[in-house]
User: Fold this.
Amino acid sequence: MAAQGLGTDVGRPVVDGLRRAEALTARARQAGEVRDDVTGADIVLLINAVTQGTAPVSDTAPGLWRRYLSMIFDGLRPEAARPLPVPAPQSLAPGRAL
Assistant:
């Protein structure tokens, strides 16, 4: 199964990764470790945000990504939950409405 809008070679790893992220996130939700409204797509996008956000300083501060990932993980805990302003994305495929 290819991600909609992506070729088969590129799409399959994306779909597989998203499925894995969703499965892990579902387990974390069931265990009460993350807020009830967090999805696998949220996790994928948040990790990507950390990666992209710290890339410009990765040579001078190679471990900085850990700081931001820790902040994000703390914010995902149920005790930190507040209503979110918009729902989680339904698709991560380029060119599709989130």
The CA atoms of residues 33 and 76 lie 8 Å apart. The helical segments are 8-30, 40-54, 64-76.
